[in-house]
Amino acid sequence: MSAFKQLVTHSQKISHFNHLAAIVGWDQAAVMPSGGNQARSNAMAELSVHIHSLHTQPQLADWFAQAEQESLSLQETATLRELKRQWQQANVLPEKLVQAKSLAGSKCEHAWRTQRGQNDWQGFEKNWSEVVALSQEEAQIRAEANGLTPYDAMLDIYEPGTSSTSLDSLFNDVKTWLPDLIDQVIEKQSSEHYLEPTGQFDTQKQKQLGLEVMKLLQFDFEHGRLDESVHPFCGGVPSDVRITTRYDENEFVQSLMGIVHETGHARYEQGLPKSLSGLPSGEARSMGIHESQSLFFEMQVGRSEAFIQHLAKLAGSQFDQHNPALFAQDNFQKLYTRVKKDFIRVDADELTYPAHVILRYEIERDLINGKIKHTDVPDLWDSKMQQYLGLSTQGNFKNGCMQDIHWTDGAFGYFPSYTLGAMYAAQFMAAMKQSVDVDGAILSGDLTPIFSWLSDKIWSQGSVLTTDELVKRATGETLNAEHFKQHLIQRYL
Amino acid sequence: MSAFKQLVTHSQKISHFNHLAAIVGWDQAAVMPSGGNQARSNAMAELSVHIHSLHTQPQLADWFAQAEQESLSLQETATLRELKRQWQQANVLPEKLVQAKSLAGSKCEHAWRTQRGQNDWQGFEKNWSEVVALSQEEAQIRAEANGLTPYDAMLDIYEPGTSSTSLDSLFNDVKTWLPDLIDQVIEKQSSEHYLEPTGQFDTQKQKQLGLEVMKLLQFDFEHGRLDESVHPFCGGVPSDVRITTRYDENEFVQSLMGIVHETGHARYEQGLPKSLSGLPSGEARSMGIHESQSLFFEMQVGRSEAFIQHLAKLAGSQFDQHNPALFAQDNFQKLYTRVKKDFIRVDADELTYPAHVILRYEIERDLINGKIKHTDVPDLWDSKMQQYLGLSTQGNFKNGCMQDIHWTDGAFGYFPSYTLGAMYAAQFMAAMKQSVDVDGAILSGDLTPIFSWLSDKIWSQGSVLTTDELVKRATGETLNAEHFKQHLIQRYL
């Protein structure tokens, strides 16, 4: 067997264990009774150790050296590139550092769950200082291994090929027009009137509505499910994608659009190339591209006037005991495009969301590169919030720098993916509209042309192309903020 | 670390992977969409291979040799005995035979799913001959390894310590009185009148009813769930036990008692000793003892007059739109104790069930011991059915020897567990009644005294004692058919 073939077989073996991890992980979040958690955590930790041991087997180094001498097709070359990247990621850090960071992260995250509610920055800061120090150490080692700056080496985990140079350029562009745009839109919306949902919305009916919308979005129920969990997510494996949502009896708006969002993630997974199953080249390209698909569904399609028309109609007939005025298209459109400057990222609307991300990016970049100390973060947060959204977080840690889970266990470099995703999504839509009658397709109720484009350009490509190649082939240009800007102006002004 | 401690650590490691197998197995049966099956099967096969490799690591032989020289407590000695038994079971067969039997079994079982409906004995017999031959080979190897007859070596997989000598003695006893008893009861019941459920029974309400009954039976919902699957089962792990049922909108009787049955399995699992978790000494004693707990719940408690009173009341208030006469206690009692001679084991009542099992036992014993050929089975089946239940299966293969899945993939030696379980359950009840007011406890709605006895004598014992020791300590005598006989006479005559 060629060395390349051995690497492929080994990767498929690892993918079987990843399959198990994905399913028991979904189970833990969606259906496991609480008393099962200790044994489950032990079993999952054992599985992680096993998967790590497979990624670090000594013979892999030889196989890579040999495989690089073998004659490979273009696709095989891409597979080898991704296999090697994955192998390097798994082997770059000393075991001791991985364990220390995992322990410090668990401790910090666990305490944060209480400390945040108590606005206890002092308590949090004590645990967090260790997480930051270990993350800086991690970034340093990664940086030395691949010749990047420390922060870029962390970015590379989630967004291979992206650098802070390009992020600076993209985000600085956004910063020149976003704050003004937000003000203009808020001014415009201040005179608008709309109805908010009131009364009770049965969760069985909400689920039924969600399933109908998933059907409209051509979710493949032969290869996936919809369930409930405290924190909605998209899990499982490409042949069996598990999305979750959370229902609130007092309103259906958030859960419904949450399902649209997760369906975007799910269809990407369901559409990955089956011929490359079990290989990293057959997996999703990056966190940013993954988010581009969920945001394409949620923001580009889901909040379009044409789609809102379907949503309003489906919701209205599901909740036929409620005030019909709530389900008027115009009211629905307003409900789903309301802009407000506020403190919390996860509750932010499409327009203010990038401000939250850029703020975090600028802080974590400087923190990981050692330009600021972790104790500088609250003040920096406050001044950037003032600057981008006109809000003060002075002394308000829980709605400021302590609001997100990401930093508590050292996931630095992740935040930019959200806004990269929004920009990719806008750029994909602009390109798609050159050949597809998007609104016509949505209005007709048969969205096939839209999904065919996404499947062809994005989903079926897996990770064979680099992110830049993928975006360039799909849209004719590399990523820029212009399409995103035009999309926002057109929708909100 | 002592060799014993190393064995313990190794066993706990294996138990983590068994945990994963149990959860993804439940998932496959209860929630997985059909399109996920291929990838899931591959992942589960990979996991099986891994677990097998852990059971067969070469250093284990040394550890066992050393551990047997170490000074161990009584409980540790029991743990070592069970660890060694498990290790021997995993290592006794050549890999090639395991694979060949697995392939032949899958092929035969898969084809059987179609052939049974077509009454195609000829087609089935072709595949089955290989399964039988490989099972005979397996039995021969097992027999040589532990000095038993071939069939006893198969029995030993499911019911360690039981022999066909003792089964012959138990079952021959039953055969002296069962056929007459069945006739008497059928004669007695022939003049009885009762109402069968008619109309529609909402499955949500059936589920609610099942949950209420599980609560009465003190199922621990912090450590388990109720779900649905085509074939009801009890799965999961002791800290998270997953039972399933199947609802039929046309009646609720079967599903309801099925839930009582699975709850018996579940409470045994939930009550296993936590201090021995991850070790075979902390697992259920045997298939027969497991079945004794489900049948204790279903037959000893569940069909008692006192419990039927609860069931009738709970069902009546759940289905309050139906004819109240259906939920009269007397009617419920008759519904749940109806006796009928029929072809199908899984549909058989408490009284005729042992006849189905004894028939299978006698045939599989002689088949595995090479005293009969697999082509003799249909005629033997017919003559034994005539003898025990007065029914002919001449030419009726699908309701005769082709009705069960067990033999299709070579699970010979399993059937006796069902009737052993029924006998153990009757013997446990007789012993319990010497110190516990069973009917009083059931009538009061607080069944704690019953469960305390079971927990103390059975559940908390795991596999520390041998089956014979366990039964003798719990009941003062070894297993005999007398309590079972008295129980049946008292209930049915």
Automatic annotation (TrEMBL), chains A, B:
The keyword Protease applies. Zn(2+) binds at H261, H265, E291. InterPro entries: Peptidase_M32_Taq. PROSITE patterns: PEPTIDASE_M32 (PS52034). Its EC number is 3.4.17.19. Its cofactor is Zn(2+). It catalyses: Release of a C-terminal amino acid with broad specificity, except for -Pro. It comes from the Bacteria. The active site is at E262 (proton donor/acceptor). Pfam families: Peptidase_M32. One of its GO terms (molecular function) is metallocarboxypeptidase activity. GO terms for biological process: proteolysis. Binds 1 zinc ion per subunit. It is an enzyme of class 3 (hydrolase). Broad specificity carboxypetidase that releases amino acids sequentially from the C-terminus, including neutral, aromatic, polar and basic residues. Belongs to the peptidase M32 family. PANTHER family: CARBOXYPEPTIDASE 1, METAL-DEPENDENT CARBOXYPEPTIDASE. This is Metal-dependent carboxypeptidase.
